[in-house]
Write a structure and sequence with these properties.
A hairpin with a 5-residue loop joins strand 3 and strand 4. This protein is α+β, with helices and mostly antiparallel strands. It has six helices and four strands. The protein is 45% helix and 20% strand.
Length: 125
């Protein structure tokens, strides 16, 4: 019984309660998963104090179409710029929100800066 409870709790810690998207927050793990699955990496740089990031969490990532497309096609990585300053600097995520899409080898193939409505984001995926 304890094993079941702990595995449920572990899954919940990686979910954004607003969007129910399962985000990874470990860069190295996400890179490894992408290499193993040959999926692109969707990095979402955000901050708790960023108003537009909150709007994306509440609206964009809550869209069923966005969730479906992201979860099917990408390894999803959500990084707080304040908690990950080295990665924020490495990817030059200076304006928020910033989305960076990498190929499975870690090469940047797309950069999206600023708030994206569900419709705007879907056209760029």
């Amino acid at each position: 019984m304890a094993v079941i409870v702990s595995s449920l709790n572990s899954d919940e810690t990686n979910k954004d309660p607003k969007s129910s998207i399962k985000w990874d927050n470990d860069y190295n793990h996400a890179i490894q998963v992408a290499k193993n699955t040959h999926k692109k990496i969707f990095i979402y740089f955000y901050a708790d104090w960023c108003v537009y990031c909150t709007q994306m969490d509440d609206l964009t990532y809550a869209s069923s179409e966005v969730k479906e497309k992201l979860m099917k096609n990408y390894v999803l990585l959500k990084l707080d710029v304040d908690a990950n300053p080295q990665l924020s600097q490495k990817y030059q995520a200076y304006s928020l929100p910033t989305i960076i899409i990498l190929d499975y080898n870690g090469r940047e193939i797309k950069r999206i800066i600023g708030y994206q409505s569900p419709e705007q984001l879907l056209t760029q995926l």
